[in-house]
Structure formats: structure tokens, C-alpha cells
Design a protein that fits this description.
The chain has about 425 residues and is mainly beta. It is about 10% helix and about 35% strand.
């Protein structure tokens, strides 16, 4: 009897020891899991622009904006194709954040339907699921008609409205029960175009920015300022054709105001926005002269070095240009931007830009700008880089802000 009790006690002790050992292993495994990398699995791609089924006018610049998520320090490339043709592969090896954005533009020179596809790849060859969106290029934008409304539906459309100024005309009437048995003969044609029902594009601030009464820094004083990372609906734009050099009128402060395009990330199609050109601000009253000396601007920004890879760009293949901007003056500069254009026979074929931070005297910074040219291969082109193109920074010398080189566009993928 005592032997049986002893055996049962021994078995109990062994069972307790095994449970404790398993608990220790489980704890170790959990500790190991807490130390694994946070970026497992393939990266994820979202296309922010163009919007699905967006329509662009011929010769417009299609702004392409993608968001790479679940990224991390082992990213390799982000590849973009349109209708199966590569329009650019971005080197993402310098990206270390969990998410980052890739932006470029594509010239809509040929009418037709297009499919944009974006794929991100890690160093080990792991690729994201392809993200794709369809858009079209037309000679003129046709109103998008979804269906012919019945009389009942039309009467409901006249009385149904959202609070933000758009209507619900594209939504079918929920209570319509019968359809007319004969074509509508007496319905008068509308005298004005039906306003579009698609959502407004948005602008997200890349840094703190001033909001002004008009499209320019000369509209003083600012109406106020907004912080980085805030998003606003875009209501209109000024006539500047390039989005990264334009000004946008946004919905802000329970009203609206203007913000510089190079300080925001645009999401959505801006091709159909109203174009506004407000009058210049009235001149400010000239103050009475005083004995206080006027400070002399002692900033001097210039492009001191640049290189393009490949040295001779090819059609439909992205080239990366490294541009070094220096402040050789004796006063610190304020933030501005540098614009890179591809020009053929005096006409701009592609354009992109990068932000130049404030530079101390003697300080320089190098930025990289990518361009993809898809027109006039085998002919002469010119790369033209301009720092502070709007002359927003007062400088000692405004004549040394450009640099250029001429080349012949290779056939490449055309």
C-alpha cells in the first residue's frame, strides 16, 4: 500500500516538473517573439492617385502617388508599369520607415484606356501583391451619366442634397416603385450642367504652412497657419500647370484660403478643378522713411553640382538626377524648392521637384529628382534645373540659380 502511494506521489512530482518546463519554454518563445522584426511578410501597396476610372485631358500630367506600407529597412525597389510598360523603378534601399510614399508624373500624350500597376519588392525578392488602377485619357471630358432618371427619381434629386454642397443625383431613388411606360416627351433639357458627384481631391500638409488670401507669398499677412499632417479638401487651383509649383484653394478655417503646392501631398484627381486667378493684393502703404538702415539680403543659393543616372536618359525609362544646392552667402536661407524640367523645342515634356531645407552660410544639401520622358526619342532634349524658381528667397545674386545640359533622348522602351 505504501509503495503504491509512493509511486503516485512520484508521478505527481514528475507531472509538476513537466508542466513547469513547458511553461518556461512558452515564456522563452514569447520573449523571442517580442524581439522579432516588426516588418514580416510582403510589403503592401496602395495607389493614392490617380483615382479609379479618373479621366484626364490629352497632354495633361498624370500625378502618380503610391503609399508603401509594412515596409521597413529591407526594401529594394518600387516598380510602376502602365499597360505592361515599365515607366519607372524607384530605388527604395534608403527607406527605413514602416511606410513611405513614392510620387512621380506621367505625360498623357495619347488617347486611350490605361492600367497603372505598382509592385514593391524586398531585398530577399519578396514582392507585394500588385496594386492597380484604371484611368483614361480623352480629347475632352464627357459628363459621367450613370442612368436616365425617372420622373419620380428626378423629383427626389431636386430635393435631396448633402451638407457639403454636392448632391445625390447619382444615387437611385430608394422609394421608386414604377417606371414610366412611355418615353419622356415633355421633360425640358437642363440649362446648366449637372455638377460632378465625385469627391473632391485632398491636400495633406508635409510641414507647417501658412494659409493666405491669394495664390502667392505676397498676400500678406497670412490668414493663419496649419500643422504638418493635416488634410483639407481642395476647392480650386491657380493657372500654374504643374501641381508641385501651383497654389491650391482649400477648405479651412470654416471658409477657404490658399496654400503652396510644394508644401502638400495631393490625393485625387485635380484635373477637373476650377481654375481661379484672383487679382493681386493691393500695394501696402509705404511707411515714412526712418534712419533705420534696411538690412541687405546676404543669401546666395546656387546649384554647385549635379549628375544624372543614366547619363543619357532613354524614352519611358526613369532617370535619377542628384542636384547639390549650396548657400554661399553670409546669412541663412529659408526653405525653398528646386525644379527639374525636360524641355524639347521650348516645350516642357516632364517636370518634378524637391524641397530644399533652410541652409546656413556655407552649407549645402543634395537632393534626388526622378524624371520619365516618353516623347520625341532620337531628338534633342534639355534638362533645366532651377533653384528657388519663384524668387521667394531674397538673394545677393539671382542670376546663378539655374543649370542645364543638352542630350539626345534614346529610344529605350518607346
Amino acid at each position: 500500500m505504501k509503495a503504491a502511494i509512493f509511486r503516485r506521489g512520484t508521478a505527481t512530482l514528475l507531472l509538476i516538473a513537466v508542466v513547469a518546463l513547458l511553461a518556461a519554454c512558452t515564456s522563452t518563445a514569447e520573449d523571442g517573439e517580442s524581439q522579432t522584426t516588426a516588418f514580416e511578410g510582403p510589403p503592401q501597396v496602395r495607389i493614392m492617385s490617380p483615382q479609379p476610372n479618373a479621366v484626364y485631358l490629352k497632354d495633361a500630367s498624370v500625378v502618380i502617388s503610391t503609399r508603401i506600407e509594412n515596409a521597413g529597412p529591407d526594401m529594394a525597389t518600387v516598380s510602376l508599369t502602365i499597360n505592361g510598360v515599365n515607366i519607372g523603378t524607384t530605388d527604395a534601399s534608403a527607406q527605413t520607415a514602416a511606410a513611405f510614399s513614392v510620387e512621380t508624373s506621367w505625360p498623357a500624350t495619347t488617347l486611350g484606356d490605361y492600367t497603372l500597376e505598382v509592385v514593391a519588392m524586398r531585398d530577399d525578392g519578396t514582392t507585394s501583391d500588385p496594386a492597380s488602377v484604371m484611368f483614361s485619357v480623352q480629347g475632352e471630358v464627357e459628363p459621367q451619366v450613370t442612368e436616365t432618371p425617372t420622373e419620380d427619381a428626378a423629383s427626389q434629386t431636386d430635393t435631396t442634397s448633402n451638407g457639403d454642397g454636392t448632391d445625390n443625383a447619382a444615387q437611385p431613388a430608394a422609394t421608386a416603385t414604377t417606371a414610366p411606360t412611355q418615353p419622356q416627351q415633355a421633360a425640358p433639357e437642363p440649362t446648366t450642367a449637372v455638377p460632378p458627384t465625385e469627391s473632391f481631391p485632398t491636400a495633406t500638409t508635409l510641414q507647417g504652412a501658412n494659409i493666405r488670401r491669394g495664390p502667392g507669398v505676397n498676400y500678406e499677412p497670412p490668414l493663419g497657419s496649419v500643422a504638418a499632417g493635416e488634410s483639407f479638401r481642395i476647392l480650386a487651383r491657380n493657372p500654374e500647370p504643374n501641381a508641385d509649383r501651383a497654389w491650391f484653394r482649400i477648405e479651412v478655417f470654416n471658409s477657404s484660403g490658399w496654400i503652396a503646392g510644394w508644401l502638400v501631398e495631393v490625393n485625387g484627381d485635380i484635373g477637373n478643378l476650377p481654375v481661379e486667378n484672383p487679382p493681386p493684393p493691393p500695394p501696402t502703404a509705404t511707411p515714412a522713411p526712418t534712419n533705420t538702415p534696411v538690412p541687405v539680403a546676404e543669401v546666395d543659393l546656387s546649384i554647385v553640382d549635379w549628375s544624372t543616372n543614366p547619363p543619357t536618359p532613354s524614352c519611358l525609362q526613369t532617370a535619377t538626377t542628384s542636384i547639390t544646392v549650396a548657400n554661399s552667402g553670409t546669412s541663412p536661407s529659408t526653405q525653398t524648392n528646386v525644379v527639374l524640367q525636360d524641355i524639347h523645342n521650348g516645350n516642357e515634356q516632364a517636370v518634378s521637384s524637391a524641397t530644399i531645407p533652410a541652409l546656413q552660410p556655407g552649407q549645402n544639401v543634395t537632393v534626388q529628382i526622378t524624371l520619365t520622358v516618353s516623347t520625341f526619342f532620337g531628338e534633342g532634349h534639355r534638362y533645366l534645373a532651377t533653384v528657388d524658381p519663384d524668387n521667394a528667397v531674397a538673394e545677393i545674386n539671382e542670376d546663378n540659380n539655374t543649370r542645364q545640359f543638352d542630350y539626345t533622348l534614346q529610344k529605350g522602351g518607346c
